[in-house]
């Protein structure tokens, strides 16, 4: 079936090196797992989420309109701010930066 456009989103967990240094690599790994879970929970079945490297991830989103992509990114940013990757460290909060390309 033909694809009528796609969105590519590159994401980076902000200050990830500091998380590893302050709380250790086990906590850093938990952050990566939680972040990946947030991504998977927000995209459609036909979309692709992948770890690009280190703390970088990529989303390939099929047939996305600009308004839908913006709404998805707003939900994603909010979900990352709210995620608590390690229950015993409720003060650990994360944020992400994203770059977006939309091909029509």
UniProtKB/TrEMBL annotation:
The record places domain GGDEF at 4-104
Q: Which InterPro entries match?
A: Diguanylate_Cyclase, GGDEF_dom, Nucleotide_cyclase, Rev_trsase/Diguanyl_cyclase
Report the domain of life of the source organism.
Eukaryota
Q: Which GO terms describe its cellular component?
A: plasma membrane
Q: Which GO terms describe its molecular function?
A: diguanylate cyclase activity
What SMART domains does this protein map onto? GGDEF (SM00267)
Q: Name one GO biological process term.
A: cell adhesion involved in single-species biofilm formation
The protein depicted here goes by the name: GGDEF domain-containing protein
User: Native species of this protein?
Assistant: Hemiselmis andersenii (Cryptophyte alga)
């Amino acid at each position: 079936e033909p694809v009528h456009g796609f969105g590519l989103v590159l994401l980076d967990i902000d200050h990830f090196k500091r998380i590893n240094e302050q709380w250790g690599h086990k906590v850093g790994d938990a952050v990566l797992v939680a972040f990946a879970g947030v991504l998977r929970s927000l995209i459609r079945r036909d979309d692709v989420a992948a770890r690009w490297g280190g703390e970088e991830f990529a989303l390939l989103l099929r047939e996305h309109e600009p308004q839908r992509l913006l709404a998805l990114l707003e939900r994603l940013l909010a979900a990352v701010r709210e995620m608590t990757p390690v229950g015993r460290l409720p003060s650990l909060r994360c944020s992400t930066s994203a770059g977006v390309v939309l091909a029509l």
